[in-house]
Amino acid sequence: MAEAGSNVTELFRTSTAHSPSYAALSRATGDQQPITDFCIPCNPYFPTPEMFEELGDRLREILTYYPSSADTITAELCSVLGLNPQTVAMGNGSTELITWIDHLLVRESLAVPVPTFGRWTDQPMETGKRVDMFPLPESHGFVLDPASFVDFVRSRGSRTAVICNPNNPDGGLLPRHAVLALLDQLQDLDLVVVDESFLEFADAESDASVVGDAVLRPNTIVLRSLGKNFGLHGVRFGYLVANPGLAGRVRAALPKWNLNSFAETVVFMLKEHRLEYAHSLRLVQRDRQEMIWQLSRLPGLTVYPSQGNFVYVRLPEGADGALLRDRLLEEHGVLVRECGNKIGSSSRYLRLVVRPQPDVQRLVAGLERTLYGTPHTSGQAPLSGQALVPAGRHPGPMPMHAHADPAHALPYASGTAAVDRLVQGA
């Protein structure tokens, strides 16, 4: 698999902002070994096999005919979710909605904590906006302090503010009361966006969403991603909720037939599969807890608390995330998200998607062999490849919620001086 491995490595080198697509990786490996995907944050339990079978049976019809209008699909989604269609705009994925929010509603500046979802920094920079980046402190586990963020927004004079709740890549969640307090303190801004794309996977409180409050506020948008929740990234559908004026501005700008027939089919299937969807979320929550426990047992690996369907980890000192990513894929068929190209993160961090236990065992075995050169618990001999963490360089297992000592926190360096100055507020 050496030639295929070099092809895969080259894909990561040429994809500077995001990981290469699963399809591109499959082509590069030549399907020589199956890939266990810990990179793309899918829901492994939804849609159900029966739903996929129904979609397969209707494939010819779905691909042959035009979808209904976005208004029709939006109305059906709102009937399922109990929302007023006048407060909702559906897009061809959350990225399309982020693009239109930027074009229509963001003026000269936008403030956002980093690290976070890359489109919230990249999109406004691409259109010439000033992006004020608020570094989430590694020494405090990347937890967002709302008061400090408000002070930052004021000091920079930002006119738009964005938070992701839970945040991507670390999975940190602000409780609902803290988000509402933040919205109250920023009610004079042009716009405040709460990106709740991964909130369905949270279980820290029964209802952490501020969707119901957004429709009553003049400057607030809540963004939701159906593809992430349902495990259907390829369908590309998401929605935003806001007061009728804001939602109407975005809805009016969206292209006609911006939603495809797959999106329509899935939306019209939801009423019959609510129980299966709710059950899938509980399974992901269970798997997340178990996966955090498994990862926390690895020596020197720092595992951060998460309320998303992914877990953010810091590698032991001396480990290179890019090299680890390449070796896990080439030697074990395990794909992970190395975060060196995320502003505010570095190559020492991975975002690992929550998956069922058999897959997690494969991940842990690959990490043990590649990081430490230790054999798998099955008694197999370790791989001949050199361990990324030399013997004696890693301590014993760290507690599940352990964080770095501030005195030993590594300064962020993106490798690009201009970006570093932005992140450091220079």
Mean of residue pLDDT? 87
- Percentage of helical residues? 40-55%
**Which structural class should the secondary elements be placed in?**
alpha/beta
Distance between the termini: 46 Å
Catalogue the unreliable spans.
376-384, 396-426
What strand order characterises the main sheet?
1-11-12-10-9
What's the main sheet like? 5 strands, mixed
**H and E order:** HHEHHHEHEHEHEHEHEHEHHHEEHEEHH
Helix count equals 17
Question: What does this 3D model show about the protein?
Answer:
The structure is a single chain. This protein is an alpha/beta fold. It contains 17 helices and 12 strands. The strands form 3 sheets. Strands 1-11-12-10-9 form a 5-stranded mixed beta sheet.
Short description:
By secondary structure, the protein is an alpha/beta fold. It is 41% helix and 13% strand. The relative contact order is 0.15.
Descriptors:
426 residues, alpha/beta, five-stranded mixed beta sheet, 17 helices, 41% helix, 13% strand, globular, disordered C terminus
Topology:
Elements: H1 2-14, H2 22-29, E1 36-38, H3 49-57, H4 59-64, H5 70-81, E2 88-91, H6 94-105, E3 109-114, H7 119-126, E4 130-135, H8 146-156, E5 160-164, H9 176-185, E6 191-195, H10 211-214, E7 220-225, H11 226-230, E8 238-242, H12 244-253, H13 261-269, H14 274-296, E9 302-303, E10 310-314, H15 321-332, E11 334-338, E12 349-353, H16 357-372, H17 417-423
Parallel strand pairs: 1-11, 3-4, 5-6, 6-7
Antiparallel strand pairs: 2-8, 7-8, 9-10, 10-12, 11-12
Helix pairs in contact: 1-2, 6-7, 14-16, 15-16
